[in-house]
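Input set for joint prediction.
Command: fold jointly, output tokens.
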Amino acid sequence: MIFLVILLILIAFIGAPLFTIMGAGGLLASHSAELDPVVLIIEMYRLASQPNLIAIPLFTFAGMILASGGGTKRLIKLFNALLGWMPGGLAIVTIMSCSAFTAFTGASGVTIIALGALLYPLLEHARYRDRFCLGLLTTSGSLGLLFPPSMAILLYGIVSGVSIDELFLSGMIPGLLLLLMLSVFSFFSAEKLHIESQKFSWPRMVSALRDSIWDIMLPILILIGIFGGFVTITEVAALTAAYVLVLETVITKKIHLTRDLPHILIDTTTLVGSILIILGMAMGLTNLLIDSQLPMKLLAVVEEHVDSQLQFLLLLNLFLLIVGAMMDIFSAIVVVVPLIMPLAARYNIEPVHLGIIFLANLEIGYMTPPVGINLFIASQRFGQPILKLFRATFPFLMIMLIWLLLISYIPFLSTWWQTP
Amino acid sequence: MPMWLDLAFKIKHGLIAFEKLIAASSLMLLLALTMFQLIARNFFDTGFSHMDIVTRHLILFIIFMGAALVSEQNRHIKIDVLSHFLTPSQQEKLIRPLIFFSAIISGVFAWYSVGFWLDEWQYASANERWSVYLALIIPAGFIILSLHLFLLTITGLEQHQVKQKPLPHCSCSNFK
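tokens >
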């Protein structure tokens, strides 16, 4: 059995699709537990009864429509009119627009591909150093993961059973804190490089507001929908998708119903299919692992060496940073969350706080070798070697690590909304 | 090209067209039904429980068809830590065996899901039978996925997809 497990890990490492590894693992686990593999299918079917699951394809669809329509340009224009006059304004515009965009598209690489193409020449034209531009854009590809309607948060909520509304609320301050820290760094970098800012202009501001008035309504709609309690997460997702569809096909007319929409629908289903097939295949495997008391055995080992919550958090961060550097965020959520939840509960870590720590670590993992996905996408987009990009992202990585320590050891940043 | 290979390509292209049609219409239907439920619940204080069952199954349609289509683009999520250390020609040599491995695993799941569906059918009460028809997507989905992967093992990835380094998820046509 051990030989087969090692072989499976090797097959995974040379590039077999993760869903097949999960499936094969499930078959091995059911054989080892002398259970009929039909239990794996039953678990997969149970996936369909998760009430919030429908929100994932609908929010993804909305993100894809925005990415394919004129959403990116309007967003940059708006943030540029609002913040472009500040020292380091264009870098701050990059941070804000990328995070807003990633929240919708789920850090799927679309941000670097779509916004990178628009922002890179603008940043270079403003005489930012090449290294700074590359580092900033590579980092910005995963900002916004903690903001609604992030797909990573939706998936974490579904896998862990933690309320998605509470996760969205908990991610607000940590998410904003990161944007603030990166903006301050950009401010000082621009000062050091003597980058000139554009002058504030009322006509430009009015024009940007007029162009993006319908886009501005969107986050308002989502926030009121989620936190106002009027509609469920799934209904907010449907409203968002319908709203964006009408916006891009009827109002701005950037998307043609017969020419563009079928491609967007298929792109959405391929993105959703590639993520949720792993979840479906993993459900049986993780349940079998839980039934075999694996988390409890892990807990016994950890308890032997770790005495305090502080130590545990440090260990957790190290572990998750390694996971983030090796695995994609969605597969990491599916595989790792069920195993660490009981451990975190033993050390009295709030489930929502754990969720934010988990996602923050994986957000950093996006830009760390060997398989930091942002590095690969940026390498492809900007035609630069991975090592150069890693060097470029290094200052940003350091800032993010400081941010990670802050949100890990100050739980109040994530749990401020809970009544004592 | 031998006739059998030509046939394999034709079947695969037909399968892709079918998957695209089901995937796109399932997503549109999901949006339409969810909106319908939202309006019914909020404006008419009513709802249709059957519709919830349909939407929950539509998600499975989207997952299976999406997963099959991603296989065609070789863009499944992977933990390919070691493959980065291989040369492009070594990576290319691994593609077919790995696709074949995925086809076998999907085939095994297809086999067990047929058993699962037959059990569901046998024990379902008369008024629940209609939802068991929807659950056919599980065996059908695995069969389609497995068939697609087997055909892909035979035909290989079409040239433009082999050369293109896989992006993790996004296949947005507009950004290629």
